[in-house]
TrEMBL record:
GO terms for molecular function: glyoxylate reductase (NADPH) activity; hydroxypyruvate reductase [NAD(P)H] activity; NAD binding. It holds the Pfam family 2-Hacid_dh. InterPro entries: D-isomer_2-hydroxyacid_DH, D-isomer_2_OHA_DH_cat_dom, D-isomer_DH_NAD-bd, NAD(P)-bd_dom_sf. GO terms for cellular component: cytosol. Residues 103-280 form the D-isomer specific 2-hydroxyacid dehydrogenase NAD-binding domain. This is Glyoxylate reductase/hydroxypyruvate reductase. The keyword Oxidoreductase applies. The keyword Oxidoreductase applies.
Length: 322
């Protein structure tokens, strides 16, 4: 059996979930194929184990790195590839859970759920105000930037709320796919921004999308609009200024940098924001599927087979096309 070290997708350190023991079902499933080194075991034996896995060049038998989730920005793909090591992710395992969270954030802000919970729980609350009003999402405009697998699932869910859905993507979806969810394609991002009641970002982080959504884009949005960010492409400094100055109404973020934010960060001092714990894919079903996807990729690599969901560095992809 092969040796397997399990890890999550964060480059910032060990998350709370990684500190806990893996669910029993996951452990038993993995033990059928590998000798495990869990993150818990690593943390308890950091001094002895860290030297053994310090760098890729002292892992001569390493064949594949399989990561949970879709993001691979925590992996330095070019040097990994130069050692002949394959990389695989689990892009489709996270789609439904992340789309669910995007809608949850939108609904939470529209109906002021966080504020309502705080008031209901406050020792100073003696009555509930009769003029406590939120917004309905039914009939509102939802603009989606990024119509990949997650964005498309957001679109399908939003259709059930009878929302007006505008979308932008680098590559257009087939006409029948857009018609199935009632989405109107906009060639330019600017065409969406001026119509948004809710703007949702569902874009993969790449060099060309880094800080895709910044000061210019925020200033084109309506002052009554809410930004929902479930990707990594927002210029966070520009967002702080926009929220402080009333350029947009509010923002709901599942992704920030760093994670967690420093306790004194200006985003955490604002009242017109919701920040969650980067939990887009944090559901039992998603984690189970990610685990299975990773095992499939590892076993394929060890057996010399085609690797499901292999991630190929852009330079290698370019050479393959020549």
């Amino acid at each position: 059996r092969s040796r397997l070290g399990t890890s999550g997708g964060s480059s910032q350190g060990v998350s709370g979930m990684e500190k806990q023991e893996l669910p029993y079902d996951y452990v038993e499933f993995l033990k059928k194929h590998f000798n495990l080194i869990t993150m818990k075991e690593f943390l308890e034996n950091k001094n002895s184990l860290s030297e053994k896995i310090k760098a890729i060049y002292i892992l001569p038998n390493l064949k594949v790195i399989a990561t949970s989730g879709a993001g691979v920005d925590h992996l330095d793909l070019k040097p990994i590839s130069s050692f002949g090591v394959k990389v695989a992710n689990s892009p489709f395992a996270v789609c439904t859970a992340t789309a669910d969270l995007g809608l949850a954030l939108m609904l939470a802000f529209a109906r002021r759920l966080v504020e309502g919970c705080q008031i209901a729980d406050s020792p100073n609350t003696e009555h509930f105000a009769a003029d406590w009003l939120g917004d309905e999402v039914t009939g509102a405009s939802l603009d989606i930037i990024g119509m990949g697998s997650i964005g498309y699932m957001v679109d399908k869910r939003a259709k059930a709320f009878e929302m007006k859905i505008l979308c932008h993507n680098r590559i257009q979806r087939k006409e029948e796919e857009k018609q199935a969810v009632g989405a109107i394609y906009c060639k330019k991002i600017e065409d969406l921004l001026q119509q948004s009641d809710f703007m949702m970002l569902v874009v993969k982080l790449k060099p060309q999308t880094d800080k895709l959504f910044g000061k210019k884009e925020l200033e084109l949005m309506k002052p009554t609009a809410t930004l929902i960010n479930i990707s990594r492409v927002v210029d966070q400094g520009a967002l702080v200024e926009a929220l402080q100055n009333g350029v947009i109404k509010a923002a709901a973020l599942d992704v920030t940098y760093p994670e967690p934010l420093p306790r004194h960060h200006p985003l955490l001092k604002l009242k017109n924001i919701i920040v969650t714990l980067h939990i887009g894919c944090s559901s039992t079903n998603s984690h189970c599927l990610m685990m299975k996807n990773m095992v499939e990729s590892i076993l394929a690599a060890l057996n010399g087979l085609s690797i499901p969901n292999e991630v190929i560095p852009q330079s290698d992809l370019h050479l393959a096309k020549l």
